[in-house]
Design goal:
The protein is mostly helical and about 240 residues long. The chain has one domain. Helices cover about 75% and strands about 0% of the residues. The protein has 10 helices and no strands. The longest helix is centred in the N-terminal third of the chain and has 33 residues.
């Protein structure tokens, strides 16, 4: 391909042309789907996954409900903090978008004028996925899978090099894991206070009027004996 010839022996650029080349061969409607999914859809799916996990945790309750919810609160906070860390990184590296330096790319999203390294989308989704994995393995694996798909979409759309995505994955993972102990140290007492409050306890655990496991099952024979004993006491 002409793109490969222009890329020389750079595997980063070679892989960019190979993945973005799939967009050229795909139907127009599929490219529009990938554009929406890569730009907005997977970010929304990640948020919904965190909300789903929170709903499951609060319904289950238990002694560790506050710490579990604290870990879920850390997921979006980790993503936001990772993006802030990326601001000086982008300014230092100053890597142009791939379509500015390489011809023949099928760019699905126009108007990208900021720097390319590292990918914000990859950073956000991986930070949330890894933080979610710390909170819940099953939901976390799904979150990491969404992050990997996000990275593929960004290269497919022609707006990032593969190394931009890998850098975003590394940054998101580092922030989510390295700062997790400090975040839990600060967030867990806060969520325990919320759990014990009258106004916000529902955020940590679902309120139940009765707990089937704690409510005794009535025994007609025992109740009958108790009633007769009370009648004799009254007669006496």
């Amino acid at each position: 391909m002409a793109g490969l010839a222009e890329s020389g022996s750079n595997p980063d650029v070679d892989l960019l042309y190979d993945i973005n080349g799939l967009a050229k061969d795909a139907p127009h409607w599929f490219d529009r789907v990938m554009e929406y999914v890569g730009e907005y859809g997977l970010l929304l799916a990640m948020v919904l996954l965190v909300v789903w996990c929170w709903w499951s945790v609060r319904r289950r309750g238990g002694e560790n409900a506050a710490s579990s919810v604290a870990a879920l609160v850390w997921a979006p906070l980790a993503a936001g903090l990772a993006v802030l860390v990326n601001v000086p990184i982008r300014g230092f590296v100053r890597r142009p978008r791939p379509f500015l330096d390489h011809q023949g790319l099928d760019v699905l999203v126009s108007g990208k004028t900021d720097f390319s390294f590292v990918s914000d989308h990859a950073t956000i989704t991986m930070a949330m996925g890894v933080a979610l994995f710390v909170a819940n393995r099953r939901f976390g694996l799904a979150g990491i899978a969404l992050a990997l798909l996000e990275g593929f979409c960004r290269v497919y759309m022609g707006v990032h090099y593969p190394t931009d995505v890998v850098g975003g994955f590394a940054l998101g993972t580092a922030v989510a894991l390295l700062l997790s102990p400090l975040a839990m140290l600060l967030l867990t007492p806060l969520l325990r206070a919320v759990e014990g409050s009258a106004w916000g306890g529902w955020l940590v655990r679902a309120r139940r009027d009765t707990d089937p496991e704690e409510t005794p099952v009535p025994d007609p024979r025992t109740d009958g004996k108790r009633a007769r004993a009370e009648e004799r006491d009254l007669a006496a």
